[in-house]
Write a structure and sequence with these properties.
With 87 residues, the chain is an alpha+beta fold. It has two helices and five strands, in the order βββββαα. Bound molecules: zinc ion. Zinc ion binds next to loops.
């Protein structure tokens, strides 16, 4: 059980809670388009509670991506959630 203390803690960009990295999704925006973090560039974390709360998370995405294309984010978000459930 002591293992948990060695897990990196990151802040959810939506609710600002500090949570172990395993419980967060790491995302990034490239040219205004949302995707899973691919290893370089600026990224942010969304916790698994917030990712289910579309209205909340879309606001965060619009801020992080500096884009107002809500429909595009909604679709991409669904893909990301589906991917996450597979793994
Ligand atoms: Zn959150």
């Amino acid at each position: 059980m002591a293992k948990i203390f060695h897990q990196p803690i990151r802040m959810c960009a939506t609710c600002r809670q500090r949570i172990i990295q395993n419980e967060l999704l790491r995302l990034q925006c490239v040219d205004g388009s949302l995707q899973h973090f691919v290893g370089s560039g600026r990224s942010f974390y969304i916790c698994k509670n917030c990712i289910e709360d579309e209205n909340k998370v879309i606001k965060t995405l619009m801020r992080q991506c500096k884009s107002g294309d809500r429909d595009r984010f909604t679709n991409k978000l669904k893909e990301i959630i589906a991917d996450d459930r597979k793994s």
